[in-house]
Specification:
Chain lengths: 716, 453
């Protein structure tokens, strides 16, 4: 409990800088004590806020992460910054800290539920303004003169840079340049992206300020400067994923800070109120809100997960995009058995054009690349003719055409273009259609519920079909011949020569051989982690041997995760035919970490030499100076990437186990081409259906090894 | 320089007047001069005559074709190579490379598969004759044992108790599929409930894993419908097992028996035109199998033990004309150097035989005799062939199945078996026998060693 409370205080400090690091909070906390009375009042602010939150039973995780505490810090610090403190005033400050808590609780909730926006420091501003106006009732309140403590030994620093540090210190209402230096350094260690952003923001702020207000003094520079820096933190990486466009956003928002400051300056002077972080709040909230109304969210992506550092956000988002960009919660498969050849794919000649461009034509090819046997003059010669056609996804049959006769080879029926067709409603507005089926062989009727893989008809040659083939498309209505809809196949195997490659959430390409995944009992059983299951491993890492236990748990969002007793958690998503790890957090010196690296994506299917690719967030694979240096350039693009090639290698006939091998390469690009690290992982699955062993090698040297000791399946 | 005209002995043929019939004029025989690009003449020069020639490419293509046909009709398919059809190591290896398991019917074949490197769990052990040692080994090595009769069932239970091991078993089911002859000598009968009784006995045993059902309805089946009936009956059994005992079978094994391109004696039209295609067999089987469940994941694997139809047309026998003579009736006869000792199937097939060299369009009926000094040694009773002379070569087609397993060492020695590889090279896959091979096994009692004539 004490630990929890202390953490809630420390994270409140980190929150102000969009950080989730303990050390950052401690540094910020200490820096406030450069002026002790300010430090004390700020600390009092957070203690009171968090105590109330705990007492009133607010969300525990939010309290711990500092959601309710940071406004208290700011109010405490601001009071000490603006006023000469007297016992009476201190009493009032304590009251207003309580008020701030309630304002922030209300605003936080309201913003989150109504606008899906963060509350930022708006609660603090509102409370402080109320406090300011309230204090007008008294005539004995003494306002502090605003002056920065300057240190002679720092005289060598140019003025502009000093102003930069001053702006930093003002974020915590410090009037010491030293605290600015400490905080800026802390930011550098926490995030290179934020550090670069702060410099860029300050520079543009400087330029715009003197362009718009040529006579502005340093106070105004510092005031607008710290607003610009905070805005750049929020929009340039903390709340929006950093990208090249972030630079534009930083330039624009620096300009807006000047404009808003000018506006608020005049507006608030009527009430004798300070501007504080109002421009930052106004700009960030309005920018975030307006970005929500775009049609496409492919860039300047708003944070949609629990935030980390801008770097972590970036890595997580990009890897997720890479792996799940086309993930749609529906998992259609190819509508047939065995391996077919795609004679026409998306957007191709002659017929998959315009409104009908997202369709596939499938046929069968033999060893000699021929689509038919004998002379190909009758439909029966065609390998695909009369083959069963299956539903690609569960759904309800909404249209059936079953009467169009098959054409002779070379003839087309333009009157009944689509021929015999079955349209299935898969729910969520998704429909699929298979066309040119064989007449009178359709085995379903309108209203039938069909399951994925269930036979619905047979491949034929009806409609506009000169040779037998299967036409397949997704569409958004139940009309026959409706406009096609671009929707990915959840998983399939593409064959090129002897090579088998697993594709996920992808569009099968023209002139490729494709087939569905076939579940392999053993592999499926090994990855069938059910709630309550426990696994225990004997592990060796760097010569140290220990046992580690995992338990399968489920969170309130029904996300399953493996929790290791070595303080590590790995979320996984076992959907139908592929096992996915979606994220890893915690101790990297754990078996779970290496298991996550090796088995991040595993098809529950077994084909010798089946290969697939995957990618990892750099923050989870690499932790060294080179990575930190590369992050100065993250706004331009990712300089170092971690990707994996995974395969089921050739299997000996007498092998009892199944082996999965992963090659994880972390490689630099452009400036960082010198950097390359290749690791190898090996997973051994027992043929009785459990994870038997896994090993991890770095530069050919075994660095980790785990062997299953116990596999306790939850009684169910 | 133009090819020199070949000299042929003059023949007298009866002039037939009348209309030209709709089948056209008399057949012009196209000679088979090469096998997969290798001249027949070269093969004989290198490996002697007679010589069995197997085509690696044809074997692979046949299997790939069959796999494609079945896998595009049913989601889970596994082929198992029927060893008795042709168990030369090289042949079996080609099938195993293409992913086929091994289907064996004796301890000898089992041993052969194991020696080749096939793991126990990829061996299907069929047949009525499995010795105690065979069964012990199969249980230990996790082979899939297909039980043929109740005595065997009890033997297996007894052995499992003794070994304290569980055996993976299936039963062979025989049934009426509407064809004659009815094969009811192997396995347990479906119609009289014997099969169900056996299954129940297996289910209550804690030593047996019931993993599949097996049937083999006959050989050289001329109708695909019989398979439809067979599949339907096995699916019914599997469903009952699922409903009554919640047993989900791994597989249903429909055995083999698909007809090949060889024409049977007594069959009027050539087999190529009348036997069902692989697609028709596949349609019949899979359409019934698909009835088992609505989604692929719930369906059992379909195992096929197709032998003959996969290999017959990948084998050739090249033989040399030893002599030509006229029989007393005036009918031409040809004596070749391959007899029924090598072509056991001559007793029921009308083998397709083509000359290996160009000849004129004139052809005449003939009887082909083998070289054995036995009256039964007839290869073809009546075949239309162009004129042939001593040392001409003939290529006997579709001899990939059963010949090199059923051949016998009789009167003479067995020849080379070679394989034309995919790259056009030729490898010997079984050396021709020498006298030593045969007499090595013989023992001569001391008393009999000396004689004087």
């Amino acid at each position: 409990m004490v630990k929890y409370f202390i953490e809630s205080i420390i994270y409140s400090y980190s929150q102000i800088f969009f950080s989730n690091r303990k050390w950052f909070g401690i540094v910020a906390l200490i820096s406030t004590f450069i002026i002790p009375e300010l430090g004390i009042l700020a600390l009092t602010g957070v203690i009171i806020s968090n105590l109330i939150a705990i007492w009133l039973k607010f969300d525990k995780t939010k309290i711990r992460n500092g959601f309710y505490g940071f406004n208290g810090i700011l109010l405490g610090a601001a009071s000490s910054f603006y006023f000469e403190l007297t016992p009476f005033l201190i009493g009032l400050v304590l009251v207003f800290i309580i008020i701030t808590f309630f304002v922030s609780a209300v605003l936080e909730h309201h913003f989150a539920t109504v606008f899906n926006l963060p509350g930022l420091s708006l609660p603090f501003i509102i409370s402080l303004y109320i406090f300011f106006l309230f204090l007008r009732n008294y005539d004995f309140i003494i306002y502090k003169e605003f002056a920065f403590i300057d240190y002679p030994f720092l005289a060598f620093i140019p003025d502009a840079i000093k102003s930069y540090f001053k702006a930093f210190s003002l974020i915590l209402f410090q009037s010491s340049i030293l605290s600015g230096i400490v905080l800026a350094t802390a930011v550098l260690f926490f995030s290179r992206v934020m550090f670069v952003n702060s410099i860029l923001a300050f520079i543009f702020n400087y330029i715009f300020l003197y362009m718009i207000f040529p006579k502005a003094d340093e106070t105004l520079l510092i005031l607008t400067g710290f607003n610009s820096i905070l805005t750049a933190f929020a929009l340039g990486g903390s709340l929006i994923i950093v990208s090249r466009k972030s630079l534009l956003l930083i330039i624009l928002s620096s300009l807006m800070v000047i404009i808003f400051t000018g506006f608020f300056y005049k507006l608030l002077s009527f009430f004798f109120l300070p501007i504080l972080v109002l421009p930052f709040n106004a700009i960030v909230l309005s920018t975030l809100y307006s970005l929500k109304f775009r049609q496409e969210h492919s860039d300047l992506v708003l944070l949609y997960f629990k935030p980390g550092s801008p770097e972590e956000n970036f890595y997580y988002h990009n890897v997720r995009k890479n792996r799940f960009e086309r993930f749609k919660f529906l998992f259609p498969e190819l509508p047939f058995f065995g391996e077919w050849f795609i004679t026409q794919g998306h957007d191709s000649e002659p017929t998959h054009q315009d409104d009908w461009k997202y369709a596939w034509d499938f046929e069968i090819k033999d060893e000699e690349d021929s689509l038919y046997k004998d002379d190909g003059k009758t439909v029966d010669d065609y390998y695909c003719y009369n083959l069963p056609v299956a539903a690609s996804l569960d759904g309800e049959v909404t249209k059936v055409v079953n009467h169009v006769p098959d054409n002779d080879i070379g003839e087309v029926n333009l009157k009944n273009n689509w021929g015999n067709t079955v349209v299935i409603d898969h729910g969520e507005g998704l429909f699929s259609a298979v066309s040119h089926l064989k007449p009178d062989e359709i085995t379903v009727e309108i209203g039938d519920e069909v399951k994925k893989g269930e036979i619905i008809g047979r491949c034929g040659n009806s409609g506009r079909s000169p040779v037998p083939h299967l036409h397949f498309q997704f569409q958004a209505s139940d009309k026959v011949g409706c406009k096609t809809y671009k929707f990915p196949i959840a998983h399939f195997i593409e064959r090129t020569g002897e090579e088998l490659f697993l594709k996920t959430f992808d569009f099968p390409a023209e002139k490729t051989y494709v087939r569905n995944l076939e579940i392999h009992k053993t592999i499926k059983k090994s990855f069938d982690f059910k709630f309550g299951d426990k696994l225990k491993f004997e592990c060796t890492i760097d010569g140290e041997t220990f046992t580690e236990e995992w338990e399968v748990k489920v969170d309130i969002l029904n996300m399953l995760y493996l929790e290791s007793d070595r303080d590590a958690t790995a979320y996984f998503y076992p959907y139908e035919k592929i096992f996915y790890f979606t994220n890893f957090v915690g101790n990297k010196k754990s078996a779970l970490y290496y298991f996550y690296l090796i088995a991040a994506k595993v098809p529950l299917s077994y084909h010798e030499k089946l290969k697939w690719n995957d990618s990892f967030p750099l923050s989870l694979t690499t932790n060294n100076l080179t990575r930190y240096l590369s992050e100065f350039f993250l706004m331009i693009g990712q300089q170092i990437k971690s990707t994996a090639t995974v395969e089921y290698p050739e299997r000996k006939e007498d092998a009892t186990d199944y082996v999965l091998e992963s090659t994880l390469v972390t490689k630099g690009e452009k400036l960082f081409t010198f950097y390359k690290k290749a690791d190898k992982g090996k997973l051994i699955i027992s043929d009785e259906g459990y994870i038997k062993e896994f090993k991890y090698y770095s530069n050919e040297k075994e660095i980790f090894k785990a062997r299953l000791l116990e596999n306790k399946e939850n009684e169910r | 320089m133009a090819d020199k005209k070949i000299y042929e002995k003059p023949i007298i043929t009866k002039h037939q007047s009348g209309m030209i019939n709709k089948f056209g004029s008399s057949p012009i025989t196209t000679p088979k001069t090469e096998i997969d690009g290798v001249p027949v003449k070269d093969l004989v020069e290198q490996f002697g005559s007679p010589v069995f020639v197997m085509s690696e490419k044809q074997i692979r293509n046949n299997l790939k074709n069959a796999v494609r046909i079945f896998k595009t009709r049913y989601p889970k398919v596994q082929f198992a190579w029927s060893y008795k059809t042709n168990y030369l190591n090289a042949i079996c290896s080609v099938y195993h490379q293409e992913g086929s398991w091994a289907e064996v019917v004796s301890g000898f074949e089992y041993e052969k598969a194991r020696n080749l490197g096939v793991d126990g769990k990829h061996i299907i052990f069929n047949g009525p004759d499995k010795s105690e040692e065979d069964l012990t080994r199969a249980i230990k090595e996790k082979a899939k044992i297909h039980i043929d009769h109740a005595d065997e069932l009890y033997k297996i239970i007894e052995l499992c108790d003794k070994l304290n091991l569980k055996a993976d078993v299936a039963i062979r089911v025989n049934m009426d599929t509407g064809i004659y002859p009815k094969w009811d000598r192997f396995g347990f009968n479906y119609e009289n409930g014997e099969a169900w009784q056996a299954l129940k006995r297996i289910v209550i045993s804690d030593k047996l894993n019931l993993i599949g059902l097996h049937t083999h309805i006959g050989t050289y089946m001329m109708t695909a419908d019989a398979y439809r009936v067979a599949a339907n009956k096995l699916v019914k059994l599997a469903k009952n097992l699922n409903d009554q005992f919640d047993i989900k079978l791994d597989y249903i094994d429909l055995g083999g028996g698909f007809a090949s391109k060889n024409t049977l004696i007594g069959q009027y039209l050539p087999a190529e035109e009348v036997v069902p295609t692989m697609e028709q067999f596949a349609d019949a089987i899979t359409s019934e199998m698909l009835e088992f469940a609505s989604t692929p994941d719930e369906m059992p694997t379909l195992i096929l033990e197709t032998g003959r139809a996969l290999i017959d047309d990948a084998g050739y026998l090249i033989t040399k004309v030893l002599a030509t003579k006229r029989l007393s009736t005036g009918k031409r006869s040809i004596v070749i150097d391959a007899g029924v000792n090598l072509l056991f199937t001559s007793f029921w097939y009308k083998h397709k035989i083509l000359p290996a060299q160009q000849s004129s369009v004139q052809s005449e009926n003939a009887t082909i005799y083998g070289p054995l000094c036995m009256n039964i040694d007839v290869i073809r009773d009546d075949i239309t062939l162009p004129a042939l002379k001593k040392d001409d070569l003939l290529v006997i087609h579709y001899v990939g199945a059963y010949e090199v397993t059923q051949w016998m060492q009789f009167i003479t020695l067995r020849p080379n078996v070679v394989m034309v590889m995919e790259d056009g090279s030729v490898e010997i896959i079984r050396d021709k026998e020498v006298v030593e091979d045969i007499v090595r096994k013989e023992r001569l009692p001391e008393k009999l060693k000396k004689f004087k004539l």
